[in-house]
Amino acid sequence: MTPDQIVALLAAAVTAGAPLIYAGVGETLAERSGVLNLGVEGIMLVGAVCGFAVAVATGNPWLGALAALGAGALLAAGHAVLTVTLGAEQVTSGLALALYGTGLSAFLGKPLIGVPNPAPFRAFPVPGLGEVPVLGPILFRQDALVYLSYGLALATWWWLARTKPGLHLRACGESPEAADAMGVNVAAMRYGAVIVGGALAGLAGAYLSLAYTPAWTENMTGGLGWIAIALVIFSTWNPLRLLGGAYLFGAVDALGFRVQLLGVETSSILLRMLPYLFTLTVLVVITVARRQASVPAALGRPYFREE
Amino acid sequence: MSTGAAAPPLARPARAEPPAWVEAVGVRAGSIVAAFAVGAVFLAATGHDPAHAYREMAVGAFGSSFAVEQTLVKAIPLALAGLGVALAFTMGLWNVGAEGQLAVGALAASWLALSAGGLPAAVVLPGLTLLGALGGAAWALVPAALRAYAGVNEIISTLMLNYVALLWVDYLVFGAWADPTAFSFPYSRRFPEAAHLPRLYGDVHAGALAALVAAAGLALLLGRTRWGYEIRTIGASQAAARYAGIPVRRRILLVMATSGALAGLAGAGEVSGVIHRIQQGLSPGYGFTAIIVAWVAQLRPWAVVLVAVLFAALLNGGFVLQTAGVPAAIAYMLQAMILTFVLAGEYLLRRLRRRRAVAAARALAPP
User: pTM of the entire structure?
Assistant: First the structure.
């Protein structure tokens, strides 16, 4: 590989990592508050279809992104009602949401198959920074949603680690009893985290249909939602490490695509297995390396004060 | 130190409560009604006539003997995979990989069917059934071993392996196994007659018997044997099970293998009993629907069979609806909504009971 090809590969990794950052940061928030949301894959699909439909109708990708945020928030609110208010099994509720979102997106997306996107998010160089050698083309000749994803990961890390509301949110996930005693409204905090997390998952989906692909195809997420959940585990619930994980994963994804373009003799179908096998391998390595201590202690456990 | 909560349950609650099974069935029936009601609102909101759509679905699912046959044919893989999922869930193992295990079972069965040459049915059929089960079991053993010996989260591992298995099917049907007479269609050549499962009633193949036998076997196993007791104990608390001397790791391997074998059988049944070849998209998500089936059936084997028929009817009704211009995805939405309402109903019921018990205890306690 020439240096230029390596730079192109890294730039592609940053692009491919963006949806994982949105979905992963969202899931980190929910899990840090104590709620596992396995519905990410379904929420992303609904976000992708809603964002695409609105962008096609209005010609404005930003309105599409807004619609995806709203759709994601709405679906996640359903999960919050079930798990926070009713104390339902979080795994099952999340799986139901994943399947529901898959069905809903296929239903809504039927008339959108094959429709061209007149207004995708386009890449533009950041003035000044885009001209920096190596880093410029990798980080600063992307589209607006990629630029926002850098800020989101950094801001979420800072918010969780360094602010009082961030501390309160983490307390809800570590020991809801202690959080309650501190005067934190555990249910409200969890609702907020799950809904914001869902909105971000919706935006992650819209990134695919408004910037990455940019079109609507059924089941276009292809497991990215599940990979985002795995990334949250790799990153030990830390948004900064998540950033690294998302780019590592994006590089694997992009590498498979590049190897195909270079004409290396491998079947493209086998190459498409790569991200899933890679995810599985990293999950095993991380688990064996025993970094489990950082799992939010109350993850998956409902909390009711009166009981 | 007498507190309200410690008061002994001396008296019955004032109002006699309905027996638990009435409540359980009631919650499920109510959930189905609620899901259809919400679905009707959704259909109306998206410009379809819900009454017409539901009538079409009912006709498509049960309206003719052909429709009934198609519904039962789809119930077979749902029941088999659903039983496997229910077994794993009973032990607290989140096997969400039935879709991949089904695909690998189908691959293993197809390998024999496509390479059997002139072997007689008496050899091929038992062989491909066995291979289907073994294929599914092997695919489930990977996440099982990772879980048992390295503590790897089986939700993610089984899901990732679903994608790998489906791509593996693609790889073969686009490549080595592609039908040479069908240009670039993603399917293999047709199986020889000796590899076609016998039919019992119309299109309903012998897999139906396998599903019933599996349900009976699991019901017996879980309800009446030491093994079943151990599985339920592990499901309730792994720590307690370990303390009681139950070999938890070995049970994880065995239960996941059995769970995968049932899904693999479902895959073998699809290729040798229904489509008579292996193709891309051989399952319209049976392995995922099986998760909902198992949960709605409260993980009870016979209930799984019943719910499988109901959900097969929904799928079939959905396919028929497509011709009327309503996307078939409505069936998947209804299934997921039924599960959502079952979850909500169950936990509302549980909290209601707890609150009643607390209120009763408070009423009895001295001030």
Answer: 0.91
